[in-house]
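Suppose a colleague, Dr. K., hands you the sequence of a protein chain of 432 amino acids and asks what its three-dimensional shape might be. Before reaching for any lab equipment, you can write down a predicted structure in token form. Begin with the sequence itself:
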Amino acid sequence: MPCSSSAASGSGPYGRRSLWRDSDFRRLWVGQTASQLGEHTSLVVLPLFAVLTLHADAGQLGALRAVGQAPILLLSLLAGAWVDRWRTRTLMVLTDAGRALALGAAAVAGVLGCLGLPALFAVAFAVGALSVFFDVAYQASLVRLVERDQLVRGNSALEGSRSAAQIGGPALGGTLVSALSAPVAAASSAVFFALSFLSIRRIARRESLPDCSARPARVWRRIHEGLRFVARDTSLRTVCLASAAFQFSFAAVMTAYLLFLPRELHLSGTAMGLVLAATGPGALLGSLLAARLPSRFGHGIVLVSAAAIGDGVFLSVPALHGSGAVTVLALLAVNFVFGTLGQLVNVTVMAVRQTVTPNGMQGRVAATINFVGLGLTPLGSLLGGFLAETWGTRTSLLTAAAGMLLSPLLMALSPLARLGRTLPSPTVTAGQ
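The predicted structure, expressed as tokens, is then:
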């Protein structure tokens, strides 16, 4: 149901109570956990199906990943405008239902023997498009449910659930594709989205939103307001640029990485799933650290140091050879460190963004940062595939990993690096 006539107050129903004592927050957390598990399973299932079963080459794998990421560029800004106009619960349950249906259809097509690359491209695009709306909606939903001084703890809990999904998703996806079949793996992802649908639809609190009974053209004006707000705020502008640099390079890294593991190191599908899943325990630790370290040492120093070390650790991967125990352990260590520090950066950045943004701008600011930060990922995936074909996976992986270091450099040269233990209040702007 669209917007109501009263503005969001920004005061959640929890007061000073523990978040876990409120049933609505628990339902959001359970639903988001299931949704993230479905998403992380599908992100591994589709590429591994293409590489191991359909024998996709580097260019085809890069194109498949680019198709799944293209909705970020195409739909993020529209998603932000819609999230600020609609109840987040409505958008989340609709996107969960859509992703369950898309992956369920892929499972049926696989059983019938007609799940080829064109079908994978279609499913990847559909899941990616719906995930754009879900991701913006759940971030805005948290702000409407909790007090601002609870955002770090709330984000820590939600990002911790995403970490749990990173633990189970890649391992489950890789194991199911390798041991059983792609249809079974796709069906498992569909089940997770269905569970998320059932949990989130039970959230009882009725959201109050700003009045938005406006003409369709007003949507584009609201998108412009979000872009302008982010462009004028130095911290948010830096977050956009640093995120864009990281995500572009990381997309290229992952395309080369998914080729490097089976073709250069000769890892099995199960071993690949376990290696990729190592980011999960690290991310879980990073979520716990994010609830403590910024308030103790300062948000700026935590952001810059964690980003520099976490991104730099990937430079060691191209030096590995063979599929022995030492190589696997080294990959597990790399992914664990990357997951820990990367999640520490993610949670801290999200707290900064949510704290400095007025309630009526939350959806549009989140979408603008997603648009700028993640919009170049399809190009990064294509570049990773091109470099792997041209230079080989080892050289392309090293080059792309070096590019990730531009992100901490941008943060170090910005006011983000000087943020202290407490964060500034939001700037009220017109047109919220």
